[in-house]
Amino acid sequence: MHPARLVVVSFAALATTSLSSAGEEMFLYKLDDGSGNVNVGPPSTFDADMLWGNYFQAQPNGRQIFELHVGLGTNYPRDEFDQPLPLTLFLFEDPDDDGDPTNAIPVAETTIIPTVFTQTGFNVAPIPPTVVEGGFFVGANVFARGGVDRPARLDPQPVGGENAWLFYSDDINPDDLGSSPFFTTMDDPNFVPIFGVWMVRAVGQPLPPCGDVSGDGQVNLTDLNILLGAFGQSDAGDIDGDGDTDLADLNALLGTFGQTCP
Questions:
Q1: 163: helix, coil or strand?
Q2: 214 & 182 share domain
Q3: Looking at the structure, do residues 98 and 213 belong to the same domain, yes or no?
Q4: If we measure between CA atoms, which residue out of 200, 203, 202 comes closest to residue 154?
Q5: 99 domain residue, yes or no
Q6: Does position 42 have pLDDT exceeding 90, yes or no?
Q7: What are the beta bridge partners of residue 139?
Q8: Are residues 102 and 70 in the same domain?
Q9: 229 and 166 in one domain?
Q10: What order of strands is seen across the sheet that includes strand 27-29?
Q11: Containing structural domain, residue 250
């Protein structure tokens, strides 16, 4: 496992097509139109560990990703007790922002037991708030039996498939997606009979206010001392811009303590 990766394990997934629980300040990253009627899995000639997902560009009001969504096919892989297999969702950062995730770096992941397998429904998976810059990729990963399992739900579209990627391998390596024996975008006529985008989404929010009140670019003890010295007395420690120094500013500082401000 990548040492810098944030990992959360959840044994339940919630179905939703709304984002009311995320609050008002958020950004929904999506390529699909909310309905996917094609289910995709490996061909009958082989079983495969498969990973599919969409590539996005980070937006200023959604740079902190806190939730991943995935729509799944009705023929989702199950165990010998007819229970859905665990599904792993990854958030990747692309170091060169070139639209190609084969060299992307996993920065967060979560494993869920999915419960939603409908044409318009999504499984919702929270992740620790993770900052993205430039291009990033959201992928779903599960092992599927060839010609039997079709876990990936596709929204057929004539455009946008260049941002939707599919990987097959004996064992997907999230630290090196490019090592997969087979991968394609969902607009390549050599491999894809139906162009489209995946029912894979991300939800982001604006970055919290930076606690750098000293102006040196770092959030450290210097800033904390300034804030505590101004607490309740002046605006020298005002981080949230309301004109005073109070608990809201202290919380903002502690939330970004040890970080470098952009």
A1: helix
A2: no
A3: no
A4: 200
A5: yes
A6: yes
A7: 53, 90
A8: yes
A9: no
A10: 14-15, 123-131, 64-70, 200-205, 27-29
A11: 209-262
- Residues pairing with 48 in the sheet: 144
Out of 1-5, 42-46, 67-71, which region has the weakest mean confidence (pLDDT)? 1-5
- The pLDDT assigned to 148 comes to 97
Return the pLDDT at 257.
85
% of the chain beyond a pLDDT of 70: 90
Q: Do 60 and 178 share a domain, yes or no?
A: yes
What does the pLDDT average to over 96-101? 97
C-alpha closest to that of 107 among 32, 30, 8, 23: 8
* 223 and 122 belong to one structural domain: no
Residue at 1 is within a domain:
no
Q: Terminal CA-to-CA distance of the chain, rounded, Å?
A: 29
Q: How many domains does the structure of the chain reveal? A: 2
**What whole-number distance in Å separates Cα of residue 31 and Cα of residue 199?**
8
Q: Does one domain contain both 73 and 153?
A: yes
Tell me if 83 is assigned to some domain.
yes
pLDDT higher than 70, residue 246: yes
Query: Of 219, 68, 46, which is closest to residue 130 (Cα–Cα)?
Result: 68
The predicted model scores a pTM of 0.81
pLDDT tens digits for range 160-203: 999 999 999 999 999 999 999 999 999 999 999 999 999 999 99
Residues 12 and 28 in one domain: yes
Are 257 and 213 in contact by the 8 Å Cβ rule? The answer is no
User: In this structure, are residues 4 and 107 in contact, taking their beta carbons and an 8 Å threshold?
Assistant: yes
- For the chain, the residue count is 262
**Alpha-carbon torsion (29, 32, 38, 40), positive or negative:** negative
pLDDT given at position 3: 34
Decide: 91 and 107 in contact? Cβ < 8 Å.
yes
